[in-house]
Amino acid sequence: MNMKKIEIEKKLEEIFKDRLLLDTADLVSYGFDASFGQYMPEFVVQVLSTEEVQQVVKLANEYVMPVYARGASTSLSGGALPVKGGIVMDFSQWDDEFEIYPDDLIIKTRPGVRTGRIHELAEKHNLMYPPDPSSSVVCTIGGNLAENAGGPRGIKYGVTKDYVIGLEVVMADGAVIRTGGQTIKNVTGYDLTKLLIGSEGTLGIITEATLRLIPKPIDTKTAMIIFEDLYTSGKSISKILTSGVRPSKMEILDHNALNKVEDYAGLDLPRDAAAILLIEVDGEPDNLIKELNIIKKALKEINVENIEIAESKEAENKLWQVRKLVSPAVVESGYTKISEDATVPLSKIPEMFKKIDEIKKKYDLNIVVFGHAGDGNLHPTINTNMRDEEEVRKTEDAVEEIFNYAIEIGGTLSGEHGIGVMKKAFIKKEMGEDGVRYQQMIKRALDPKNILNPGKIFPEEGEERLVLRNE
Ligand SMILES: Cc1cc2nc3c(=O)[nH]c(=O)nc-3n(C[C@H](O)[C@H](O)[C@H](O)COP(=O)(O)OP(=O)(O)OC[C@H]3O[C@@H](n4cnc5c(N)ncnc54)[C@H](O)[C@@H]3O)c2cc1C
């Protein structure tokens, strides 16, 4: 062990005692996330306070060592992977400090709290924290803030950044700053809150957040629309959104996705359908059926008539169960799941579906498509065998074609999963050389020694192509 490492270990041991993990088994476990690729950190520390985070960052700054913040490691873009070794800072144990202020409609929370617990607490007070990533039972709010996570409710209520009014952040030099505040309106100075949300742990480490809540809608109603062809399912999305009704959720599953769920859970789904759309409306109970009827009428104009409305809460829950089971069903049906989140303008969804279908046939890959249809946020998901070199190469080419096409039709590489390791090879295609140069200027200004989550977002030399396997 070199001198630098010995000194860092000694100092971390003084601060963390048995919360400093050094065993190979522990280090290996912290080298994965929900994407793929495996990297070994040198140290893992389980932080429990802002002061501890500050001490780690100061140490990393002094010794110029990478620091990787880690929540529940559900990132699908390799966000928390310690690609350059260094220190992994595990927030998942700091999970019980959060408090609601119902009269102010805010929650103050520490980063390790699971998003699902924030939902539960808000609901106890008849309030709602709308951002609802499908992983909310396990993911942390810190990870959501760093990725600007979205979810099914994004179509009506927006995403994480729309609900953050203040942050406490440890900056790369160890300074603790506060951004925003506790009021909905605040225009004092630059909006660093918005800059830090979605910055993937590369500009600062979030140690506290103040989140805005809204009144919980009184009731919901859900319908399933069954399509005979994929193109029409895409066209229906704009038709619904221009009908005068704003659904609270609108999720799509293509033929392959719904059949995988049916194989996995046997929910009596229409196996022959080219796609299904699940639509939820929320609000005043008397209005809900009226709203679904408006949607029905609009769809009839384009000859879509196969619509089933869930008549009971049980039937409604069963429909949403279908959406929740897509990921586990896909995971069980193959080897490594590569989940993308290319996002396109709503009017281009039919074209995107068509293109993905062509790519699937061209490369003969196991691709399913599902996602947040109302946001244009599709999740083409490929199940691939990482031990089969030929298949991995085809998958890399297919992913690249999906991204290229999404950008070509005015879309983006990522609607919610972030760039991380997975998509950095493509960022210049979307932002251009100058766009990326200016982003890197911000990174250098806030983290001049490049210690916060290095190796993410921006490609380094030789990283101009997607490589799925790190040997
Ligand atoms: C089955 C499944 C479904 C999913 N569904 C959705 C979905 O609907 N919508 C969606 O948006 N995402 C979804 N995701 C992706 C993932 O859950 C989100 O990106 C989530 O926000 C990650 O949270 P986490 O706690 O797991 O963070 P991690 O994966 O541990 O980390 C993610 C990023 O956050 C950074 N980070 C973590 N804590 C901090 C902190 N305190 N300060 C600074 N940076 C920090 C890390 O460095 C990393 O860059 C899904 C994932 C899975 C596996």
Outline the structure in words:
Strand 5 and strand 6 form a beta hairpin. The longest helix has 20 residues, at 389-408. 37% of the residues lie in helices and 20% in strands. The strands form four sheets. It has a seven-stranded antiparallel sheet with strand order 15-12-14-13-17-18-16, with helices on both faces. A five-stranded antiparallel sheet has the order 5-6-10-8-9. A four-stranded mixed sheet has the order 1-2-4-3. The chain is globular and about 70 Å long. The chain folds into three domains: 1-216, Uridine Diphospho-n-acetylenolpyruvylglucosamine Reductase, domain 3 (2-Layer Sandwich); 219-329, Alpha-Beta Plaits; 331-422, Alpha-Beta Plaits, CATH 3.30.70.2740. It has helices at 3-16, 24-29, 50-63, 115-124, 141-147, 154-157, 192-196, 230-241, 255-265, 285-300, 313-324, 326-332, 349-363, 389-408, 427-446, and strands at 20-21, 43-46, 67-70, 87-90, 98-101, 106-109, 127-128, 164-170, 176-180, 205-212, 214-215, 219-227, 249-254, 275-283, 307-309, 336-339, 366-372, 377-384. Helix 8 (230-241) packs antiparallel against helix 13. By secondary structure, the protein is an alpha+beta fold.
